[in-house]
Structure formats: C-alpha cells, structure tokens
Amino acid sequence: MKLYANPTSPFVRIVRMALIEKGLNETVDTAFVDAWADDPAFLDANPAGRVPTLVTDDGARLTEALLILTHLDAVGTMPAVLAGGPAALSAAGVAIGVFDAAVAVIIGRKSAPDFDTGLVGQKRFRTMQEGLRRLDTAFPESGGSFGLPAIAAITALDYLVFRFPDRDWRSLCPTVAAFRDAQADRPSVRDTVPRG
C-alpha cells in the first residue's frame, strides 16, 4: 500500500496512528507530499489533491480519512479503530469537527489575511473552543480503548496547540489533555506529532 500524506494534516495523522495501532505501518510506503504543489503522481492517485490518499496493493485509490479507516479495519488485525458504538463515534465526530474547523482557518488564511476576524473565521474558532469542551465531557465514557475517539481527541488537541500556540487549548479539555499526556510515549502518538 502507498499512503500520500503530509506531516501536519490531522486527517493524515488519524490514518497514520491507526496504521501503527493495527500493526500495518510497515506494510505502507508513506510518501510525504505538498498538497498545494500538484505533483502528477499524487494527482493521479487523487484528482482532488487532498491528503490522505491510500493506494491499495490492488491499485484501488481510497480518499478521505474515514473511508481509509474503514478499509484498514476490514483488512487489518484487531483492534478495530471504528468500534465502540454510537457514543464512541459521537465523541470521535466532535474531535474531527474540531480539527476540521482548524484546518478551515489555516486554508482560509491563504486567501484572506484577516480570515480569523471575519464571520467564518470567528465561527470556526467558536467550533474549536466549544468542541473541545464537549469532547472533554464525552471523553471519559468513550476513552477506554485506543480507537478513533482517543486517536481523534489527541489529534485535535495536538493540532490546535501546533497551529495556534498563543491560545490555552488544554484548559478547555483537561480530561483529554491528561489522557494525551499519559499516552505521550505510545508509538502511534509519539511518532506522528505534527511538525512543520
């Protein structure tokens, strides 16, 4: 398999963490790309030019992180990343919404330097703040195993701290922050921290 990725994308990170958790990391050739550079091989794999993109051994091109995770659960060993029922998936959805809003701000800044103070930017920051608060409330009941809720929560917190270091995100989600700190040496956490 080949994974098109970049080292800062939170969508890529949840896939990379799942690959490590499922013991599949060694079976994947990870190619770090600049999603803005329009590399021909990358665009052949995904004409939308978005990461992550996974090309399977039989040549299927899988785009979008959650679709890739579904495939990894189907082909990989336990633990299942998408297990846990509605409560777990709900918590994961809140965390994904948090980092999706953060990515929207980063992309919005590329076209509008004052994006943060505009209507859409303010809404995205509100989504991040309220999302972390809600995630912290939901996390204890879904944080027992290291599936998508744990992966997405750690990814959300780390991405906000990485992209917006001038804000105190950890105080909005002390339960998630403590869980993240307890997992700091876990290979899937340690080896995928965003760098840029």
Automatic annotation (TrEMBL):
Listed SUPFAM superfamilies: GST C-terminal domain-like, Thioredoxin-like
UniProt-recorded name of the protein: GST N-terminal domain-containing protein
UniProt domain GST N-terminal: residue ranges: 1-80
Species for this entry: Methylobacterium indicum
Domain of life: Bacteria
